[in-house]
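Fold this complex.
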Amino acid sequence: MPELQFREAIRAAMVEEMERDEDIFLMGEEVAEYNGAYKVSQGMLDQFGSERVIDTPISELGFAGLGIGAAMNGLRPIIEFMTWNFSFVAFDQVVNNAPNIRYMSGGQFKIPIVFRGPNGAAGQLAATHNNSVESLYSNFPGLKVVCPSNPDDAKGLLKTSIRDDDPVLFLESELMYGMKGEVSDADDYTLPIGTARIAREGDDVTIVAHSKSYWRAMEAAEELAKEGYDAEVIDPRTIKPLDIETIVQSVQKTNRCVVVDESNPFASFASEIAFQIQDQAFDWLDAPLVRVTAPDTPAPYAGNLMDEYMPSAKEVIQAAKRVMYVD
Amino acid sequence: MAKKKTNASKPTVSPEHARHLLHQMLRIRRMEERAAELYTAEKIRGFLHLYIGEEAVAVGVMEAAAEQDAIVATYREHGHALVRGMPARAIMAEMFGKQEGCCRGRGGSMHLFDRTLRIYGGNAIVGGGLPLAVGLGLADALQGRDGVTICFFGEGAVAEGEFHESMNLAELWQLPVLFVCENNLYAMGTALDRSESQTDLTEKAESYKIPSKAVDGMDVLAVEAAARRAMDEVRSGQGPYFLECRTYRFRAHSMFDPELYREKSEVDAWKQRDPIATFFDRMKDHDLLSDADRKALEAEVNEEIDDAVAFAEAGTLEPVDALTRFVYSDAPSGAASNGQPAASPAS
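Structure:
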């Protein structure tokens, strides 16, 4: 299998799908002439032309809505937000029209649209540029939320997202765009939405983590292994629909669970996992679930404060030991 | 402000067409009057926004719409849906919350959709439909179809960013959209000159280089003529067009509005310009319509709306286990998508 950067895997997914289906187009700020703010769409204008790779003004509310209208009228748009922070300017369209029109019309309209772009912390950018949106958007029925942690998942899941007939929010990461990994070049490689991946098997504690947090969890698991503790790491890959069965089965085996999520903690994805586990696996739990998240604080600028803000492998190790009642 | 209509010039309209226009306006008027009664009787719930007084706008513009054109409207859209071709039965049943309604009781008064008629909603967020309309136009343009999207919105929407972004994108990309601003002078209770620094709305369109025209929205013939010219321009590939229809809502904003923001004398003055009465009088003056025609039309309309109400009354409620249907295209009915049983939200 070839080794691709995360951004190249996303591009490969879009290119393959656009070659397969003429109804798909990419629209967003700097996606065409500039070749993508993060070079995800590099070369796509040359390949597909300006009718299918469309530069927009800085007009998120407008072009998000245009995408939804186009999706109602036979096309399959991919809308790139330069970052998900900017999706807040488009909030009305993303949360009022995209998820509701199918329902409000009694199923008359499908909305096959992908909104994609980088999510979460991206270095010392301070509070307006470090938002993690997965908890927020997964609260809206009608939206699907996908959060891959590696290039192979990114490619397989994005291809599936583009083929999905519902609005899918595909969350990437600035800090991971350069990450390399083996990516399947199998013909028509797709991965199902709503299927978690057991990334590391273990019996002592379940660690659930997606996107960047997944890598903190894997670092922690390796360190824990050196101390003789065998962690099972589960990457949910999609936040909604959520593969809770895989997580519950793991907790029934390990009887302990830590969730790592760089979102702010209140009413978060980590909280939802905690609820669902106590709902479905209460009798198997030997300890209360522990969350490792950003604090309930806006993201800071200063490097030392940002280091403290982000979930670390060290915190994951501490959390795992807490639920295992060691130290 | 409210001028007495001069009936001097003979309109260039056939008796058949005059009859048709009167019929369409009467259909809206009667449906809305019945809706108000049914709201008081608590058969229709939620919010209810009536189009009474503004009928000439939807009727006149819709005369210029062809089958391949798309419609986007606001939460005051019963009339648009009706004259576009949605059966009064489907509208009334929707407002009753019955599964025979156009959206199976999931949309209600403010969200009427019909895919086959290319009615893309009722949109209950002010300005929310404008980007959708431009996107519908984008898809038609990219796919080489000659449809035009007609986007209705109130003058209150021009204060929204969605208006400005949509105007810019539509003109920038020369998309086939007819923007129809239904200027009824009040955004809920706020008069135009209390909310806009520039009250000439055509100037806003011109600032985006979009050709524009303001027309008397109480005169169905004027609206129709202006809409036909506008649609010809848009259809010929010259990009979007902005048509401002100056009109007036005779009833309250919604059913919970004591109307303290406008003088009764102002309302009365506008009622002198009732689009139905003035049109009929003018047609009668020129022997294009008679009292007997009007009577016959009113009887026909009463029968249609009575039938719609009876249909809605007799309609059935969707079983509650269908509550979660239509959330996702791939989710089975009765199951939430996250694997949890649908009926345990309170747990």
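Chain A has a mean pLDDT of 97.
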